[in-house]
Write a structure and sequence with these properties.
- The protein has about 100 residues and is mostly helical.
- The chain is about 30% helix and about 0% strand.
- The structure holds heme C (HEC) (3 copies).
- One heme C binds near residues 42 and 45.
- One heme C (HEC) binds near residues 66 and 80.
C-alpha cells in the first residue's frame, strides 16, 4: 500500500469516528469536511469517498438511488453543498419523495 493510500485510510477511519455530527446541511459543519474548498471538485470528494459506486452502495436502499441514475456520475456539489444550501437536483425534473439533509 502506498503512503498516500495509507494516509487516506487513516483520514477516513479517524473521520468516521466523528460522524455523530452528521445531521448538518453544510458539509463544512462536519470535522472531516472542514478543510474542503468551497468549490471542491468531485475528485476531491472521492479522495475519501473512493468511487461513485462506493457512495451508491451507501444509498442502495433509496428509491431511486441518488448516486446511480440515468444522469451518470455528476458533480457531487450539484446536490451536496460545501458551504451553502444543498439542492436535490433530480427534483428539478421529477417529484421524488427525497430531500437533501437541510434542504
Ligand atoms: C478528508 C476526507 C473527506 C473528504 C475530502 C470528503 N469527505 Fe465526505 N465524509 C468523510 C467521512 C469519513 C464521512 C463519514 C463516513 C461516511 O459516511 O462515508 C463523510 C461523510 C459524508 C456525508 C454523509 C454525512 C453528511 O455530512 O451528511 C456526505 C453527504 C459527504 N461526506 C459528502 C462529501 C462530499 C460531497 C465531498 C466533496 C465536496 C466530501 N464528502 C469530501 C470524509 C471526507
Ligand atoms: C443527485 C444528487 C446527488 C449527487 C450528485 C450526489 N449525492 Fe450524495 N446524497 C444525495 C442524497 C439525496 C443523499 C441522502 C440525503 C442526504 O444525505 O442529504 C445523499 C447522501 C450521501 C452520503 C451519505 C450516505 C449514507 O451513509 O447514508 C454520502 C457519503 C454522499 N451522499 C456522498 C456523495 C458524493 C461523494 C458524491 C459525488 C461523488 C455525491 N454524494 C453526489 C444526493 C446526491
Ligand atoms: C433534466 C431533467 C431530469 C433530471 C435532472 C433527472 N431526470 Fe430522471 N428522467 C428524466 C426523463 C425525461 C425521464 C424519462 C421519462 C420518464 O420516465 O419520466 C427520466 C426517468 C427517470 C427514471 C425512470 C422513470 C421514473 O420516473 O421512475 C428514474 C428512476 C429517474 N429518472 C431518476 C432520476 C434521478 C435519480 C435523478 C437525479 C440523479 C434524475 N432522474 C434527474 C429527466 C430528468
Amino acid at each position: 500500500m502506498s503512503l498516500t493510500s495509507l494516509l487516506k485510510v487513516a483520514a477516513f477511519t479517524l473521520c468516521a469516528a466523528t460522524l455523530s455530527f452528521s445531521a448538518q446541511a453544510q458539509l463544512k459543519n462536519t470535522p472531516m469536511h472542514a478543510n474542503l474548498p468551497d468549490n471542491a471538485t468531485t475528485q476531491q470528494c472521492l479522495m475519501c469517498h473512493q468511487s461513485y459506486e462506493a457512495v451508491a452502495q451507501k444509498t442502495a436502499k433509496m428509491n431511486p438511488n441518488p448516486h446511480s441514475s440515468h444522469r451518470g456520475d455528476q458533480n457531487c456539489t450539484n446536490c451536496h453543498s460545501v458551504k451553502g444550501k444543498p439542492h436535490f437536483e433530480c427534483n428539478d425534473c421529477h417529484s421524488f419523495n427525497i430531500k437533501m439533509k437541510g434542504e
